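As a warm-up, study this chain.
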Amino acid sequence: MPPIKPGSTTLVALESHKLEVTILGPPRRAHNPIVIIIPGITSSVKEWATVTKSLAQSTSVFNYERAGYGLSEPALDSDTRTAEELAAELDRLLSAAKIAPPYIVVCHSYGGIIAREFMRLRKLTDFKGFVFVDANTEETPSTFVMEIATA
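Now compare it with the structure written out below.
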C-alpha cells in the first residue's frame, strides 16, 4: 500500500475487514509525531472534527474509524471485542497504513482503556505524549455499578 497522502481518506485492509483512515494536516517530516485520536467506544472519530481541524493546522493527525463506523467495514466479532483486541487492531492498522512512530495519543472515554492497551504493545519511546479526555479506566464499570446502587 502506498503512503496515505495528507487530506485523503482511504480504506486500509486488515485480515478480515477494511478500516477508514484519514490523514490531515501538513506533510509529516521525519521524526515529527502524528496525533492519533481514539474516540469512545460508541463514538465516531468524526465527532472530533473541531479538535482535528485545530490540530491539523500545525501537525499531522491520524483519524480512523473502528469497525462498523463511518466507511469502515464491520468486523465479524465487533460486539465482543475487548480493549486488548481493539488496541491490537490499531497497531496492525498503523503498520498496514505505514504510519511510523512517534505518536501523540488523544483518547476519550473507553478510548482511554484502548490507549493504555496500545501502549503495552509498543515501546515507550514510540510516544511523545498522551491526552486523556474524560477517560475511563479498567475499574470504571465496577465503580459505575456501585454508584448506581448507592444512588
